[in-house]
Amino acid sequence: MLKDTIFQEKYDREKFSLFLKDFLINYKQEPEEIDLKEGFDKIKKLTFLGYDSRLDNLPVYEILHQSEKDPRVTLTRESFKVMRKLGRKNSLCIFLNKDSDNYRFSLIQIDFDINKGKIETLYSNPRRYSFYLGTNAKIHTPTTYLIKKGRVKDFKDLKERFSIEVVNKEFYNEISKLFTKLVGGKRIIGRKKIDEKGCLTLPEANNKLLRQEFGVRLIGRLIFCWFLVKKGIIDKDLFDVDIIGNKNYYHRVVEPLFFMVLNTKEDERKLKESFLNEKLVSLFEKIPFLNGGLFEPHKDDFYEQGFQSLSKYENSLKIENEWFKELFELFETYNFTVDENSSVDIELSIDPEMLGRIFENLLAEINPETSKPKRKSTGSYYTPRTIVDYMVDESLKFYLINETGIEEKKIEDLLKFENEEIVKDLNDDEKEKILDSLEKVKILDPACGSGAFPIGMLQKITLILQKIDPNSEKWLEKQLNQIKDTGIRTITKKFLIKQNPNYIHKKGILKNSIYGVDIQSIAVEISKLRCFLTLIVDQKFNEEENIEIEPLPNLEFKFVCANTLIGLTKVFDIQSHEIQNLIIELKEKVSTYFYSHSVEKEKTKKEIEEIQKELFETMLIWKETRSKEYTSQLHLSNWNPFSGETSDWFDPEWMLGVTDGFDIVIGNPPYVSTKGVNEKDKKILKEHYDFEDDLYNHFYFKGIDLLKDNGILAYISSKTFWTIQTKKNLRELLLKNKLLHLVDTANPFESAMVDTCITIVQKTNAENNTMLFIDAKKGLANKKVYEVSTEVFKNVVNNIFFVPNEFNLKVYEKLAKPVKALMDEWWNLISTSKNIEKNKHTLEQYRKSLKPGDITLLGLITEGGQGLATANNGKYVGVLDGTKFAEKILQERPKKLWAFIQNKSPKELSHLKNKNDVEKYLNNLSENEIRNLFDTLKEKYGRDIFGQGWLYRIVSKDEIADVEALTEDEKLNGIKGKKTFVPYDKGDKDGNRWWAPTPYYIDWSRENVKFLKDNSGKKGQGMPVVRNPQFYFREGFCWTDVSYDIRCRIKEKSVHDVLSMSLFSNMQQINNKYLICLLNSRFMSLYLNTFINTTVHFQINDARKLPIIIPTLTQLKEFEDIFNRAVSIQKQKFSKQISEQKAEERLDEIQKELDEKVLELYGLKEKQ
């Protein structure tokens, strides 16, 4: 067995070859040096070590590169180039350099582009997955996946060993456990349940949300500091909890590190006059000032200095030292890398993106909007990186094409990580256009969460700038020209001219282009934290070269905490020069504030507040004549951008300084349904949008509103808007603008959420345009692309969106278009049972005109609807004696009665002392006495005391009336005598097709029917609703109301309830049997889900829209035969004449026959 210490030693070829023999299936060592020739800057030597014949001859290479400081991005790009030259799709590579005892073990994958059967020199979809190994590496992860899991089974298993998702989930689970241990609460990880009291005590002890937000902020700052350790900015000795002996580590080390050091300029710290000992002072003095607000004390940090700078809350804010020890031990277990992973180059370490993953999920747990139901703690709500990259790439592509006029292929190549050759294809004029476009682009994430999209944008724009302005000469010049204050411009230039080009790129992008809003203040803090981290990892500092760390920029006007959906009334049609000048001055100060720090920062901050105050006072004169405008100014005067508190409104001009809209709005809006929105907020939404709906619908309207003309909106959201009636307004909005891409992403998240889609739309009026509909249900790497005109979606009922594959387009031409015409003409006449009755003569004339082969709507040839709602089923409805349902009632009665006695202690049953007494008591009562007992108790103590809708009546065959013998009077007004129970169809939860016996019977006595009819529709508990009584006791068809496909069966002569929505054929040449056959076909379920409504709730108005072909007499008989055979099998199954398995086998055969005939009937059968 190979020792895991191999991963903590300097690379040794022979030892590593032994590992490969144990790790791979059939590794054969055949070392051979390969001549690279020219074209590589960093890679200096390539050695072929061997291959695995059982893994498609997977090669293993040793790559020697120039230096440990070689940029990962350059090295990765060159390694892809090597594999392309060698024609290798998959390979394992060991990356070495002479400067370091550390190395990387990587799995590299690329796809070759194939054009007309020829492999091109281009490649696509490159990936590099790496383990960081060697003397300074943490070996927990590589040991777990490369040694402890044993020998690789196949290539799929090899890929899983290099999966970052596994590492991320493992680390998140550990962090989430420590979060719960800190703040308290319950958590389930795998099969393990955790229940913690919490080791955090706050001055406001009972505030759960306060504790959770404190915990998120603390963990976020500590992880940030750990990255600073990796960057060499903070000494690791500070993370030794025993550095202060038995004193409180939080108050003695963490608080001073955050608030006295990182948040305070070096010459203002006064460390030696504080409680800190000499060792801490010496460690703290080496740490530079970071600024940026990240370590400014939040009001809920409970930090206020007392004697010798010690916190006044030392005795009321407590965190056990042991908790910090556990956290730092966890940090020590994993490799941390300051280089943020891209979707192309992935190191199996904890990178800055992981910070986002952690907090997106912790935020989801403490977000009041998502806590009901509470989000699972699985790492599943962070938008997957592939999704972020796609949306970022596509929105930037459309923006750059619009702004520069450069051809699409060049822009696409520019956005690709692997295509470094594109720069040669761009002339100077094109490069300048791209630079200008990127300098002025404004990008907003209106629900930024932990910053996945802003950071994705920042990285992608940085990649583009690396290609067209690698030394950042032009970019730096553009950034300096924006600074109006000559003093700040001089200081900024002096610093930036020595800096890493990537740092210059990123800082300019962040200042000019990136904006975020979130309703959660803690989310805004985490977004800022990630921005700071991505800046600091690229910042160059070197004492020998006299390059100091530059304080971080201020992001208060880049990321704001506000309710994106609610805006202010636009008031700036005002012509006052004084007001206009104040607005201009305010924007200039906001721009200056980005770079300022310390004394300058405080000065600028006060100046901004003064301008706000002056502006408000100036506009008071409009109070009397312009009340709405005055209200807006009142909001503005109350907004404090420096408080971190949530604003209940959002205005991009005042909060972000963006006056004419955004070029790109991108994000993952919240999936909060209308049910999760309180009544007050619903009212506000209604006032602002003229409708109230799921929040993501409102975010689409707001997103379009926030865009400039020709701006690009890119969202990933629930795809329920494709078909659902209440989202028709959203479909109309998208089709009114220029819909560019609609991408079916199914469910890219780990937990069971709704299916999602990516929508990319341009804000511009478009009659009909060609768009891309992309089927990426199996992932974006395996997508199917369909080019289609938006006219297609305008020509279907309700502008439904559907995948325009070959079959669906055939259905669209043959059925969906004709159905649209029928709907336009007839829907208002058949949309309700009342309308059908009111227009019965017109409809009858229409039905007479139909002939075989014609297409009609199910609603045009049927009548019916919902049935009876008794509002008290226990009193009226029972189950047939001898059935499994009756057996269940016999078991439930004593349990329900005993639970009631324990709860209510009724005097009339005080003689029953235990459950045995109850069972004996019930056994001595007749069936009628039991009914009377439960009826009386319900009348006295409340309808739902035994549970809403609970049935307790057991009906004998002697009580059941012969439905066939009932008179019309008895059907309408009830039955006299002893046999008063009739069949009651209340739906079928088992989802039977064709036929099923009903175990339910309703007491249709004269007395009961009179009460039901006399009180129908009255207000109050227990008041019934008698719907469509004209259809009671009539044979028709019904369906299971909750199912992913249509499950239709015959409804025999009975009373039906609301869950047994029923229709009845009213055409002589079309009977119920034929219609049941059509509805039970797989095609009809497909049509329903594709062209009507994707829902598990099959409503009656969905049924009315289904297309029906008028059959010939021959076709009608063929379908009747299928129906009769299916019903016969069902009856044999329920009577136990054949087994369930045998019945299912026979019904499957019938289903295949039915599906063939239905496709043939509708002209959709493929020609052989």
Automatic annotation (TrEMBL):
<dbReference type="GO" id="GO:0009007">
    <property type="term" value="F:site-specific DNA-methyltransferase (adenine-specific) activity"/>
</dbReference>
<dbReference type="GO" id="GO:0032259">
    <property type="term" value="P:methylation"/>
</dbReference>
<dbReference type="InterPro" id="IPR002052">
    <property type="entry name" value="DNA_methylase_N6_adenine_CS"/>
</dbReference>
<protein>
    <recommendedName>
        <fullName>site-specific DNA-methyltransferase (adenine-specific)</fullName>
        <ecNumber>2.1.1.72</ecNumber>
    </recommendedName>
</protein>
<keyword id="KW-0489">Methyltransferase</keyword>
<keyword id="KW-0175">Coiled coil</keyword>
<feature type="coiled-coil region">
    <location>
        <begin position="1140"/>
        <end position="1167"/>
    </location>
</feature>
<dbReference type="GO" id="GO:0006304">
    <property type="term" value="P:DNA modification"/>
</dbReference>
<dbReference type="InterPro" id="IPR011639">
    <property type="entry name" value="MethylTrfase_TaqI-like_dom"/>
</dbReference>
<feature type="domain" description="Type II methyltransferase M.TaqI-like">
    <location>
        <begin position="512"/>
        <end position="745"/>
    </location>
</feature>
<dbReference type="Pfam" id="PF07669">
    <property type="entry name" value="Eco57I"/>
</dbReference>
<keyword id="KW-0808">Transferase</keyword>
<dbReference type="GO" id="GO:0003676">
    <property type="term" value="F:nucleic acid binding"/>
</dbReference>
<keyword id="KW-0949">S-adenosyl-L-methionine</keyword>
<dbReference type="InterPro" id="IPR029063">
    <property type="entry name" value="SAM-dependent_MTases_sf"/>
</dbReference>
<dbReference type="InterPro" id="IPR050953">
    <property type="entry name" value="N4_N6_ade-DNA_methylase"/>
</dbReference>
